[in-house]
Design brief:
Layout lengths: L1 H5 L3 H11 L4 H6 L3 H8 L1 H17 L9 H14 L5 H13 L10 H53 L9 H16 L5 H15 L11 H21 L7
């Protein structure tokens, strides 16, 4: 591990540059966190990975006075235990922005300055995530308001449509359905004013209402006719299905 911190590694620097191309805060925020990598890979492997990243960052700076191998090892260990819920890509992006956002290192760069650069990045990341969260809430609220407005506008039409439903067991259901279709088509083609069409639909709706008569009973004369009809039907069936003795 000490050799990784002390030896320049052009290949690691090229790989780090490749990883940082197009890297955004959103991608870094969704990447695996340090505590997850520590659990999966082990603490030693994670520290080695951070050592390689830090060494590649320092090699990219033209500063004569830089942290030495011991400083890099200590910094990698501190980052592992400090930014447990940040990702390796966060570290890479923070160091990239330290170079590209106009930070001036002059002739020296110490560990405290690197800590400050990382802290500044994570502060900006927190602001970014908060803004994203508020934007999502505002968008969700806007969509909910739009949906509510649409429902409020459509509610009267839905209620009216439900009220105009013709019961399937109505004796004149097919005829009433045809009349309703005719009214709607005439209004659609401008042959019937909306007010008159609504009035005709209302009248049609009244025709669909049927008053129940649970106490209805036939009159005595009607009951006699019904009984006679039933007896005649019974005799006809008995005659039809009577066994034939000659068979």
């Amino acid at each position: 591990m000490r050799e990784l911190a002390a030896t320049p590694n052009p290949e690691a620097r090229a790989l780090l540059a490749e990883l940082s191309v197009g890297l955004t805060m959103a991608q870094a925020a969704s990447a695996p966190k340090l505590f997850q990598l520590r659990r999966q890979l082990g603490e030693v492997v994670l520290i080695k990975l951070l050592v390689v990243i830090l060494r590649a960052f320092l090699d990219s700076l033209r500063v004569p006075d830089k942290p030495d191998a011991a400083d890099i090892l200590e910094l990698a260990d501190t980052l592992t235990h400090t930014y447990t819920h940040e990702s390796v890509k966060d570290i890479i992006l923070a160091l990239k922005e330290a170079r590209t956002r106009g930070s001036k290192f002059f002739t020296s760069l110490d560990v405290s300055r690197i800590y400050a650069l990382l802290a500044d990045y994570f502060q900006r990341k927190a602001t970014y995530l908060e803004t994203q969260h508020l934007d999502c809430k505002a968008q969700a609220a806007g969509e909910a308001t739009a949906t509510l407005t649409q429902l409020q506008q459509a509610a009267p039409q839905l209620v009216a449509a439900i009220g105009r439903r013709i019961p399937t067991d109505h004796p004149n259901a097919e005829h009433l359905r045809q009349r309703l279709t005719l009214i709607n088509q005439r209004q659609k083609h401008g042959l019937l004013p909306p007010a008159e069409a609504e009035q005709q639909r209302h009248q049609l709706q009244l025709l669909t209402q049927r008053n129940t008569r649970p106490d209805w009973q036939p009159s005595p004369a009607a009951q006699k006719v019904i009984d006679a009809r039933h007896r005649a039907e019974d005799r006809r069936l008995a005659q039809l299905y009577r066994p034939n003795p000659a068979a």
